[in-house]
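It is worth pausing here to work through a concrete case rather than discussing structure prediction in the abstract. The textbook approach is simple: state the sequence, then state the predicted structure, then interpret. We follow exactly that order.
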Amino acid sequence: MSPAGMVRVRHFEFLCRSQGMEPTVEKFRAFYQLIRNIGFYSFGNRGATKKILVSPPKSFHDRKMKFFFIREEVMPIAMIFRESDKIEKKELLIPKGADWYMNLLATPNCIFGEQVLVAEAMSDKWPERSEEVPILTFNGEEAQLYQAAFPTFGGSMGVRPLEAGEVYWYEQIKGNFLYPPAGTFANPPNATEGEQLPKPRPLRGVTSARKEILFPSSEESVGSSQEELSSWSNIFASVLHDLG
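Step two, the predicted structure:
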């Protein structure tokens, strides 16, 4: 998934939660459709619907520096590369008369502070036993959270005390997140855990300058004598250099 596609997903989740509605795939598809561009999947605006994302980012200059590669044999399932798949565009009935559709307003893309994301139940960075709830305020009154995306809005984040009988805010939002079982990372793996392929397929890539690069297979990258994973620092340095 391209960064532009992920921005649309995150922006859509923000809009839904700011209106007190659950973001769903069905609602998302009313505005966007799956597309592919230069090997990446993304989401484009569905032609007949209104646009809800204003001022999306035009570029992501540092995104290639955050790439990482996973060897095939450590995956628990056989990975299927869909490079040749064609994406069929499906015409959907746009629910223009639905209340939830009309309530999702055109809103700018914005990089929010952590407290806004906590208030939207999109971040769990909040004390577990805090007796306060994060809110957006304007002139001393609580405001709708979607307004935090507008640069001209003069409000600010604040807190309100828990109401009588209201559970901790952390307890209200923690169901939106997945947590690994206790002890999952107590002991780091010292050998590959997936199936060892007899003749692993070499991993190839193409840089922006159309230069093909070849990444080592499992036989070259896994230490066979001590059953330990060999260092990838030199490999990553080479890959990042070629990616520019």
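Step three, interpretation. Strands lie at 32-37, 40-45, 53-54, 107-108, 132-138, 141-143, 156-161, 203-206, 212-215. The longest strand covers residues 132-138.
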